[in-house]
Request: fold
Amino acid sequence: MKCSVKRVMSTILILSLVIAISPMIAATSAPNLDSASIWARDGITDAVAKGYVPEDIQGGYTDVITRREFCRMAVMWVEYATGKSIDAVLAEQGKSIDPYSFTDTNDPYILAAFALGITSGTGGGQFTPNGQFSREQAATMIMNTCRVIGANVGDSPDSGFADMGSASSWAVDGINYVRANGIMQGTGNDSFSPKFIYTREQSIITFNNIDPDAVRASGNPYTGDSTDDGEYGDDYKGNSENFEVF
Reply:
């Protein structure tokens, strides 16, 4: 009888250790990069290790990212950059989630992003969670995400892109900010291509380009390499639908 009890206790102890270790293994295992472009693989691996890439977008890397997916990654990146839960960040900033913010989603990540000013809707009380995402939307949300962690995002110099006339008026500040801080660059021929779609891997790499401490401390424009980053190349898939708000 004593022997049976010992066996049971040993089994429970082993199972407890397996359960405790399993999440650690999952967190540190290498992502499957079969669907990722060669140029993006190192950055994706780095980003996944940092913990802010949602599991459901760790694949299909050249697919166009949706508004929902980008918001979720933005919120998880805030948690990574601050070392705090999003609930703690909301509390510190005196913000709270309104579950009735939108009529077409109650996704907690979207609601948190909305409460923090990272994003807004697409009009008529809607967010359009499955809508395709564009470069100008990415630039705007990145700027707002950096603001949440304490970055001074005002007064960025003009980006100087030749096609800024095609950018939405609400996106100009964001485009200026991401270029000035070396977070996003051009698509070739001195262009930013504001309405071009943005993919999962491009979004992951963009967040990985942000140094949280640097953007918090930055009072000067980016002075590094401002050449085109070639992020479309063979992966370019065309334009996205243009939303009037982000």
Remarks:
- Confidence is low (pLDDT under 50) at residues 5-28, 220-246.
- Residues 2-28 form the longest helix (27 residues).
- The radius of gyration is 21 Å.
- Residues 16 and 207 are 35 Å apart (CA to CA).
